[in-house]
Amino acid sequence: MTIALPHPAVRVTADSVDPLLAEPFIEVNELRDAPVPHRYVHGGFANTQARFSFYFPPEGRYERRFFHNTYPMALTSDVGPFPIEFEVATGDLGFTFDSGAYYVQTNNGGLFRDPGADPSIPAYRVNAAAAKYSREVAAEVYGEHRPFGYLFGGSGGAYQTMGAAENTRGVWDGFVPFVPGCNHSIPSMFTVRMHALRVLRRRDRFPAIVDALEPGGSGDPYAELNEEEAAAFREASLMGYPLRGWYAHETLDSGYFANISGMIPALDPTYVDDFWSRPGYLGGDPAASVHADRSVLETRVARVIEGPATGFELADAPERDAADAHLVVLSGEASGASLPLRQVEGKLAWPIARADLGAAGAIRAGDRVRIDNSWALALQTYHRHQVPPTDDYYGWDQFRDAAGHPVHPQRDVLVGPTGTVNAAGSLLEGRVHGRVLMLAALMDLDSFAWQADWYRSRVRAATGSDFEDRFAIYFIDHAHHENPKTPLARTHVVSYGGALQQALRDLAAWVEQGLRPSDTAYGIVDTQVQLPATAAGRGGIQPVIALEADGGERTDVSRGETVTFRATLEVPPGAGKIVAAEWDFEGTGAGGTEAKLDAPAECVDLSARHAYPEPGTYFAVLRATSQREGDARTPHGRVQNIARVRVVVT
Predict the structure, then answer these.
(1) Cβ(66)–Cβ(134) under 8 Å?
(2) CA contacts within 13 A on the Cβ side of 1
(3) What is the mean pLDDT of residues 527-545?
(4) What confidence tens digit (pLDDT) does each residue in 386-423 have?
(5) Rounded to an integer, what distance in angstroms lies between the CA atom of residue 459 and that of residue 455?
(6) Where does 538-649 sit in CATH, by number?
(7) Which residues are CB-contacts of 338 (< 8 A; sequence separation ≥ 6)?
(8) Are 370 and 298 in contact (CB under 8 A)?
């Protein structure tokens, strides 16, 4: 069902009644003991698929506020893992209740990417209706009062959170969008990585790049690159891809690009032909290496694999990597369909979850098909042809001439704004209502950190003299889009989950007590966010580590020789105390040695000695944890950082 609403500056207020969501109902209202004691209330809105769940703590733990989490592809209104596993976003009731809040979650109406739905419904209207109704239920549970409300969400949920901040007033009091994008993120943040991966893997250039950027390296990632390789690396860097993020190059792929790869052919169907034939496109240059990487295999479907996801066994296996290729149907009932593939393993081909399921279901054994990577290769430089019309999106400056005009042919359609409107309900303009505390990760491979600075500039322009009372920002160093999941990742990055928890508490203190958070100080150099070296200069929320091995960031020793490590761990003013530290001398990421602290303190000096019995290059790791109250026992609000040094053993 689509309801067309007018589009004033604010679409939803505390007193407005959404005609689609005017009749809430409750299906479950009961006391539960697990995972912690609480009252569970579940219901929805009549004549819709919209559902909500409220989790109320015992009265003695309640401090008149609620935390409300959102993510576009939430499949349920109940707590549990989202498609992206953000720690604090999986319904951490222990943290929520320890913060004096009840918890709100919806399924966004079950309408995300429904072509017949007004995007504002899943973006913020269902959330707003549930948030307002939760106050009525809270009054029944605890007595008459108005709870403060705080909406937070990451990645696509950050779009929803920013969209709600701009399009509602009086529903929530504050907002924490984390790992955010901009109006033109999709698909450019993924395509620029795909292009660099293809070019730099041809001669296996990544090991040298990573070594140059690691502690004790040369610092020059371009030293061994030819002209094409240097251009691809520079292009990704100037778009904002974090230089240190290439450490995981062996397992990097197109990331979340698969989720939207089918959208671009639908919006811009002639692009692939233009790419391979017209001047100004990479494929239009007959000397470009992209031609050698093009692969087309015509074969037949040997077997249809039924199950939760439809797949196909092919008569022949592609000889080349078919990642992000399309399965083009050449005969049979589904002839003409083109399904983007999420994976090809030998003869097994698996369409992405959002492929044309109707066409997939019509494919039969014996149908002729083509595995074709023409679209996949063409899209690797799509960002060059998606230059935003305004110059505040400085990641695209490299594709403008001295007069500010694009140097490459531009497409008639800009895909990014379509993705933003689908997720946020409108384009982001920065006209926020309530207070916003944004959190961004410096090693985010999917939502490059500079986009948080872009949104900050939009809020400043929109709010003017009220800016300082509307917006604050935390940058978290050594953190990805998601939690580190592998031993390799755990030696390079930390989870920002504890920082996000503290951000929610800091936002509540700002709204309820007027205690404005201390922004992270930063600068932008060539689209890379850079932080001051010291805790006092950096500010924000995260501890800072200065680590040395034998007095430097690199030491060369003989086998069995003892290395002396020294470190200073310091917390920015007012951000808490160091409560834990852990050494990982071998740099395995599989666990380490706890460093003994005399007591939690704002500044801690550590030293340790370690000998390496076998030759090799090791990156010793020190992980530090701070906590606002200096409570070493609580699992909540534990903010981490990491430092590395190189030890070469001969």
Answers:
(1) yes
(2) 11
(3) 97
(4) 999 999 999 999 999 999 999 999 999 999 999 999 99
(5) 6
(6) 2.60.40.10
(7) 265, 326, 327, 328, 329, 375
(8) yes
Residues 6+ apart with CB under 8 A from 581: 567, 569, 594, 595, 597, 604, 606, 622, 623, 624, 625
Distance CA 187, CA 384 (A): 11
Q: Are 149 and 171 in contact (CB under 8 A)?
A: yes
Tokens standing for residue 495: 């989870």
For residues 583-608, average pLDDT = 94
Given this model, what pLDDT does residue 271 score?
Answer: 95
Q: Which of 405, 339, 412 is nearest to 370 (CA)?
A: 339
Using DSSP's 3-state secondary structure scheme, residue 648 falls into strand
The domain limits of the chain are 12-184+423-499, 260-376, 538-649
| 3-state class (DSSP) for residue 435 | strand
Name the CATH superfamily, with its identifier, for domain 12-184+423-499: Alpha/Beta hydrolase fold, catalytic domain (3.40.50.1820)
Q: How many CB atoms lie within 10 A of CB 247?
A: 21
Q: Is the pTM of this model over 0.85?
A: yes
Q: Name residue 90's amino acid.
A: T
Distance CA 384, CA 287 (A): 18
Whole-number pLDDT of residue 117 = 84
Show contacts of 458-466: CB within 8 Å, 24+ apart.
458/392, 458/428, 458/429, 458/430, 459/430, 459/432, 460/430, 461/430, 462/429, 462/430, 462/431, 462/432, 463/430, 463/431, 463/432
Query: Residue 212 class from Cβ within 10 Å (0-12 exposed, 13-18 middle, 19+ buried)?
Result: middle
Q: What's the pLDDT at 214?
A: 97
- Write the burial class of residue 150 (CB in 10 Å: 0-12 exposed, 13-18 middle, 19+ buried): buried
* CATH number of the domain located at residue range(s) 260-376 in this protein: 2.40.30
CA dist., res. 82 & res. 85, Å (int) = 6
The mean pLDDT of 585-600, rounded to a whole number, is 92
**Which of the four pLDDT bands, split at 50, 70 and 90, describes residue 354?**
low
CA dihedral 13, 19, 20, 21 (to 10 degrees): 50
Mean pLDDT confidence for 71-99: 78
Cβ pair 346, 280 in contact under 8 A: no
Asked if the domains at 260-376 and 538-649 fall in one CATH topology, the answer is: no
Q: Tens of pLDDT along 494-535?
A: 999 999 999 999 999 999 999 999 999 999 999 999 999 999
| Mean pLDDT for the chain overall | 93
Q: What percent of the chain has pLDDT over 70?
A: 95
- CA-to-CA distance for 140 and 211, rounded, in angstroms? 60
- Strands ordered across the beta sheet of 593-594: 554-557, 638-649, 616-627, 577-584, 593-594
Q: Which tokens in the block code for residue 195?
A: 């292009």
Tell me the residue type at 219.
G
pLDDT higher at 220 or 254: 220
Amino acid at 118: D
Q: 555 pLDDT band (50/70/90 cuts)?
A: very high
Torsion over CA: 497, 503, 504, 505 (sign)? positive
Average pLDDT over residues 55-79: 93
